[in-house]
Amino acid sequence: MTDIKNIKGAIFDLDGTILDSMFIWSEIGYKFLEKKNIHLPAGADEQFTTMSLMEAAEYYIKHFDNTATIEGIVADINSLVEDFYFNKVLKKPGIEEFLEFLKNRGVKMCVATATDKYMVEKALERNGLLHYFSEIYTCNGVGAGKNSSLIYDISLEHLGTTKEETFVFEDALYAIETANKAGYNIVGIKDVSEKADPEVIKGYCNYFINNYEEIYQYFE
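Predicted structure:
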C-alpha cells in the first residue's frame, strides 16, 4: 500500500468530499421526474443515482421522452440546483485546513466531479477554496461518468504526478470502485448520503476517514 506521507498529487471529488452537497443530488433527479409526472421503474433508482448528468439525460430521453434534448434536460436540472451552489452550499468541516496542509507540503490538487463546472467554480469561490485547485474536470466535460476512470486519468495527466504518488479522495462507493479497479490510491470519505456499508467501502480504499480530523494521524 502506498503511504499517504508520500503524496504528491490529489484528485478530489466535490459533492460529499469537498462540499456538503451530496444530498441535493439524491433528491434533485426525483424532483425533476416528479415535475414531469414520471416515476422510475422498479430497480432503476440505483442505476440512476450513479449516472453523470449527461448520462441521466440520455436515460431520460431513451426511456421517457425521445423529443427532449440532452442540453435542455441538463439546463433544466442545473436550474433546480443553481441557487444552492451559488448561495447556500457549505464546505465539509475540516476540508479547508486539510487543503492548506496539502498545499504546504507541495501537493498538486485538482477536482474531478459530476457537477457542471460553472456551479463548481461559484461554490468553491464562495467557500474560499477555489485557489487550491489548478483545474476542475467534470464528467460532462470529459464525456464519461465515474463508472469510467477517464476523469481520473485526465486529472492525473494534468497533475503530472505518478499514479503511485497520487491519491483520489471520494465518498461514493461506485466511484471508489472505479478508481480502485483503475489502480488508484484512494482515501474514502464518509458522507451521510452514501448508504453503502462503510466496511464494503473500506475494502476498496487505502485509507478511510469519518472526517478530516482523522487524516492527520496517517502523516505522523
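Summary: The longest helix spans residues 70-88.
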